[in-house]
Amino acid sequence: MAEEFVPPSLVNHGSGGGLHTNSFLMPNNTVNGNANGNAGRRKKNNYSQGKRRMNSRTSMAQREEVIRRTVYVSDIDQQVTEEQLAALFINCGQVVDCRVCGDPNSVLRFAFIEFTDEEGARAALSLAGTMLGYYPVRVLPSKTAIAPVNPTFLPRSEDEREMCARTIYCTNIDKKVSQADVKLFFESICGQVYRLRLLGDYHHSTRIAFVEFVLAESAIAALNCSGVVLGSLPIRVSPSKTPVRPRAPRPPMH
């Protein structure tokens, strides 16, 4: 079971009336099998609520299917390009996307490779230990999917590409979690956060965030947080292919 991180903003008024102790959620005593003593009362879900829940389930199922078609490759020589890496796996199946991540100045990097089907991903696991450049690569099943990218958000300079190496994309964030909570969560586990952008509002069931760290090593460590419960939901963490650009200053009011 994934470890649960309870944000400070939810400590005194967390959902379900739970008692938070040492950053873990402790449920209150139940009465007649119902939390908080509610005698099985439930609000009726109208059609729109049911439709939203169905869309959410469909989206989650699609994401899980993409994850099963994706592998995680590590110990990649810094001289190896995305094209060369994809070519290594060409006999396993058709590659949909190949994303090399990590500090470009580091000797070794890592990547996510998505195939058109699960058979391709399973076949790719057999290439673990294959020499590519000066190092044997490691190949494991991926815990996250490669998020699609709007081309207008891609890095425009070498500096922005370096920013991407220090940035992660986090989804499925509990809407009750604040930006300060997200920052505290990642800094307590991975390292200092340089810039953070939390997106979404209370009209959406969950929110997303782009987190830029001071060090690329912190962004790599953050990938291991995928599946950890933040607030009341398990977050999903993947490398970001877009930098967190500073917001343009607002024009002064006259």
From TrEMBL:
Instruction: Kindly report the protein's main subcellular placement as a broad class.
Output: nucleus
Which residues lie within the region annotated Disordered?
Answer: 21-61
CDD domains tied to this protein: RRM1_CID8_like, RRM2_CID8_like
Question: Which GO terms fall under molecular function for this chain's record?
Answer: mRNA binding
Q: Which Gene3D superfamilies match?
A: 3.30.70.330
Indicate the transmembrane segments per the record. Answer: none
Composition bias type Basic residues, residue spans: 40-55
Q: In this protein, which residues make up the domain named RRM? A: 69-144, 166-242
What is the recorded name of this protein? RRM domain-containing protein
Lineage, uppermost ranks: Eukaryota, Viridiplantae, Streptophyta, Embryophyta, Tracheophyta
